[in-house]
Amino acid sequence: MNIFHKLGLVIIGCWLSLNLQAANLDYQLQPRKIATDTYVLIGKTEDFTLRNGGNIINTGFIITSAGVLVIDTGPSLLYGEQLRAAIANITDKPIAKVLHTNSHPDRFLGNQAFEDVPLAALPKTIADIRLEADMLTDNMYRMVGRWMRGTEPLIPTEEVQTGTFTLGDHQFELTALHGHTHADLVIKDTNTGVIFAGGLAFFNRMPTTPHANLQDWLNALDQLDKMDFSLMVPSHGEVVSDHAAIQQTRAYVQWLEQTLNHAAQQGLAMAEVMQTPLPEAFVNWGVGHQEFTRSVTHLYPALEAASLMRLN
Description:
This protein has 312 residues and is of the alpha/beta class. It is built from eight helices and twelve strands. The strands form two sheets. Strands 1-2-3-4-5-6-7 form a seven-stranded mixed sheet. The protein has a five-stranded mixed sheet with strand order 8-9-10-11-12, with no helix packed on it. α5 (214-225) runs antiparallel to α6 (244-266) and α6 packs across α8 (289-311).
């Protein structure tokens, strides 16, 4: 057997493996109890792929005496259905409300599985979902294929603001920030001290920037850093009991801002900026340099244009 036959068999084997995994269509969701009444489902620190079906997000739920509060519904109808089944395996209490932490597709594309309960988010998050839902859904179909079968965007309709609300025997503090997206909701359960930081904090995973304003993000991290909490559930990565996710995210966002601004001042082309090596502290984070190159495409054109305007 020559090398080309062997290579062909390897490619076919990989293709069959991926399609068999997709055919099973099981996210294998395992809720983990992290505090009283509080469960999280930890996604992979990867990019969206056919292999993981888009399961790269941390979702969660909190069981109260008045029902279950769900935090984000995942990347697909199937994820939402399997999330709801996982909740039902733990409690027979009804779902009382869903809160969305931002407008990214892995936060709301599981909503069809929760269409019988209030779907809530910050007003700007609702507006952004309404504006981009179809495009985001199409992109997810391209990236994860059959895992998205039957998924259509269901836009949240209930607006929330900064403040407190009570659900059964739990009280929650909601804080409206922005920077990672145009509206980032931070949810704190005052009973347990657990914070769901949404997209503002990443842990051992490269932060994503399709809707980011880096300076606003740094300001939001400063506010997040001042909050007291017992545990933090970041957007991606493991739950932490300290400020490590905030510190990691801040370090990367600061480096990214400085790197892109310096490149624009030097007049570097986008292709040149993409060749910038990552500092050692970030090299081993999930997705790695690939996410950095995407951030260059997201953020560099505006910085480059601003730099040219100053020169003119």
